[in-house]
Amino acid sequence: MVATADDMAQVLRAALAPTQLEVLDESAAHAGHAGAGPHPYGTHFRVRIASPQFAGLSRVAQHRLVYDPLRQMITQGVHAIAIEVLPPVHPAATPSSLQAPPSQNS
């Protein structure tokens, strides 16, 4: 089975409930390099992810949380995963919090 970016995203969504997730297949850029498969896809990925489960963890622990659910894909031919842990997303300011205070002339 050749892994796809969609497969990887589905596994990560189920395991980490990310608030942001982008999975890119960068395999074509690695053609001819170690670990490149016979196809120009399915071996080298970039994962950009934010998850509440990363709070308070070291970078190594955060990366382990990403790698662990992908272990089966790794044993089936995924050669490299570049992980970018994104900062948590803060709730957008609500319109009411942006309103001017009431006038003192009322």
TrEMBL record:
InterPro entries: BolA, BolA-like_sf, BolA/IbaG_stress_morph_reg. It comes from the Bacteria. SUPFAM superfamilies: BolA-like. PANTHER family: BOLA TRANSCRIPTION REGULATOR, BOLA-LIKE PROTEIN 1. Belongs to the BolA/IbaG family. This is BolA protein. It comes from Pseudorhodoferax soli. The lineage of its organism: Bacteria, Pseudomonadati, Pseudomonadota, Betaproteobacteria, Burkholderiales.
